[in-house]
Amino acid sequence: MKENNIYLVGLMGAGKTTVGKLIAKQTGKEFHDSDLEIKCKTGVSIPYIFEVEGEAGFRARETAAIQELVRQENIVLATGGGAVLSAENRQLLKENGTVIYLRATVNELWARTRHDRNRPLLQTGNPQAKLAELYEIRDPLYREVADLIVDTSRQNVRFLVNQILQKLETRKKC
To answer: Does residue 173 lie within any of the structural domains?
Structure first.
């Protein structure tokens, strides 16, 4: 098991990329974002992949990216919000590092994502209701795969990162 890898899961807007970059910087690990990896490999945006290939096509690309990324060592990976929908992805993450679920309330997530047009699943008539639906479906999956659950609502990012690093250090000692 690549215990030195840290994988961040959670809904869009939970802070995976922001928190992940800071954790990587403070620990000397390399930061990766699975959505960015997909975008770089394909040369197109995530919304475009959703438009052309549908969610199923995107999810297949996401699994391929995660398969490749978990082979690396000493990384922090921010996964896409729906990565946990795949049992294979959950297993890959769980077996190859420490999984941290960054949890926030639906209202907090909505406040963070409501102006972002790069969220294909929120391009709907009632995006806040869609976010609540996604939370209802995915929260149990995030909990299932998580080694740690950290609440990101209304917290200073640096405080949050320090809290996570302390929890990780405590886990190592046990």
So the answer is: no
